[in-house]
């Protein structure tokens, strides 16, 4: 299948958005700048879910049996989740200044600590960002079950129900309709399923260049709703403005996906094609550089922009380097 260059452009924008989310100072007092960085970047993970569902859907619609398309993908996701969970036992924050023996001890203590919270380990792995792989696995499994059963209406109901339940237990938990749970509904099937399912539904349509305008309009409408929601929730219910998902996030994620699929001439930038193949690897590896650089950039009072671009550049370089070896490329491609 020929690569869609516009999708690779959005993949790179999305991974930059993820790194922006993970590097900007959450512990600082909320400001217009930090809220903008946070909320503008929220299209990224929903886009990754949706575009994964789209390309999975293309395989199904081309005649590949549902299980034949799903099992290899599930194995791949599970392998990455386990492999990177083992890698993130390494205390990357201590690498620049500690001996190999101390690092080995740190990895051991990290492993022991993770085993004390098995539920978190199952859903998040050993690093907070690996929840995405687990969520993608859930979304794939649920979508494959309903597609294989040819039960579209129940499928859509389940996807919407999960998303609404996730919102009521997170962003809307402080409202009269809120739900109070002992686990983080960002994890598991709650948010990823509706995006993966929507991507699958898009795979039955024929994209054209007009999708760029349609997608951008939907993206802007999503941002308008998103910012309205976080203002309302923070003003009336004391919610943090740094929300993972609100109702408007669905529109931003799908708007970005629709625009990406347009393959509009303005978005045909071949330079991103090679990077597009490495997006998952960049996502997996970037938190190692966040851990290594976080304290140094703060202690040296370096600007956020330096921190962000350093993590992005190092993550891209590391993923490219790992992709050159036939064994390590399995971790990034």
Task: Considering the chains and any ligands shown, give keywords for the structure.
333 residues, mainly alpha, 14 helices, 67% helix, 0% strand, globular
Describe the structure.
By secondary structure, the chain is mostly helical. The chain has one domain (5-331). Helix content is 67%, strand content 0%. The chain has 14 helices and no strands. The protein starts with a helix and ends in an 11-residue tail after the last helix. The mean pLDDT is 92.
Give a quick precis of the structure.
The chain has 333 residues and is an all-alpha fold. The chain contains 14 helices and no strands. Helices cover 67% and strands 0% of the residues.
Topology, pairings included?
Elements lengths: L4 H19 L8 H9 L3 H18 L4 H22 L12 H16 L2 H7 L6 H19 L2 H18 L22 H11 L8 H27 L9 H14 L12 H4 L2 H21 L4 H19 L11
Helix pairs in contact: 1-3, 1-11, 1-13, 1-14, 3-7, 3-9, 3-11, 4-7, 7-9, 8-9, 9-11, 10-11, 13-14
Question: Mind summarizing the main beta sheet?
Answer: none
Oligomer: single chain
Q: List how many beta strands DSSP finds.
A: 0
What pattern of helices and strands is seen along the backbone?
Answer: HHHHHHHHHHHHHH
Radius of gyration of CA atoms, rounded to a whole number:
20 Å
Number of separate domains:
1
Report low-confidence residues grouped into runs of 5 or more.
Answer: none
- Dominant shape: globular
Distance between the termini: 16 Å
By DSSP (H or I, 4+ residues per run), the number of helices equals 14
Structural class estimated from helices and strands: mainly alpha
Mean pLDDT: 92
> Roughly what fraction of the amino acids lie in strands?
under 5%
Helicity level: 55-70%
């Amino acid at each position: 299948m020929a690569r869609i260059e516009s999708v690779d452009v959005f993949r790179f924008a999305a991974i930059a958005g993820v790194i922006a989310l993970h590097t900007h100072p959450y512990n600082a007092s909320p400001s217009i700048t930090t809220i903008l960085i946070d909320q503008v970047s929220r299209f990224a993970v929903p886009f990754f879910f949706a575009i994964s569902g789209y390309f999975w859907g293309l395989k199904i619609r081309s005649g590949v049996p549902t299980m034949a398309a799903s099992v290899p993908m599930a194995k791949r996701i599970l392998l990455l989740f386990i492999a990177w969970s083992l890698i993130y036992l390494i205390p990357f924050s201590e690498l620049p200044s500690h001996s190999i023996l101390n690092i080995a001890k740190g990895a051991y203590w990290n492993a022991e600590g993770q085993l004390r919270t098995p539920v978190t380990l199952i859903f998040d792995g050993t690093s907070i960002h690996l929840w995405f792989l687990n969520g993608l696995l859930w979304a794939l499994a649920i979508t494959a079950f309903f597609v294989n059963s040819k039960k579209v209406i129940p499928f859509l109901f389940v996807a919407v129900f999960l998303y609404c339940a996730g919102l009521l237990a997170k962003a809307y938990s402080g409202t009269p309709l809120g739900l109070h749970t002992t686990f983080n509904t960002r994890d598991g099937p709650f948010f990823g399923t509706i995006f993966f399912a929507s991507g699958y539904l898009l795979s039955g349509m024929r994209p054209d260049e007009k999708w760029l305008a349609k997608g951008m309009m939907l993206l802007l409408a999503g941002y308008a709703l998103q910012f309205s929601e976080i203002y309302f929730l923070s003003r009336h219910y004391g919610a943090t403005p740094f929300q993972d998902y609100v109702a408007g996030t669905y529109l931003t994620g799908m708007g970005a996906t629709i625009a990406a699929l347009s393959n509009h001439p303005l978005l045909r930038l071949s330079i991103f094609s090679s990077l597009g193949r490495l997006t998952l690897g960049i996502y997996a590896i970037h938190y190692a550089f966040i851990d290594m650089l976080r304290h140094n950039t703060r202690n040296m009072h370096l600007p956020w922009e330096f921190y962000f671009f350093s993590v992005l550049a190092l993550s891209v370089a590391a993923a490219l380097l790992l992709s050159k070896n036939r064994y390590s490329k399995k971790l990034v491609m």
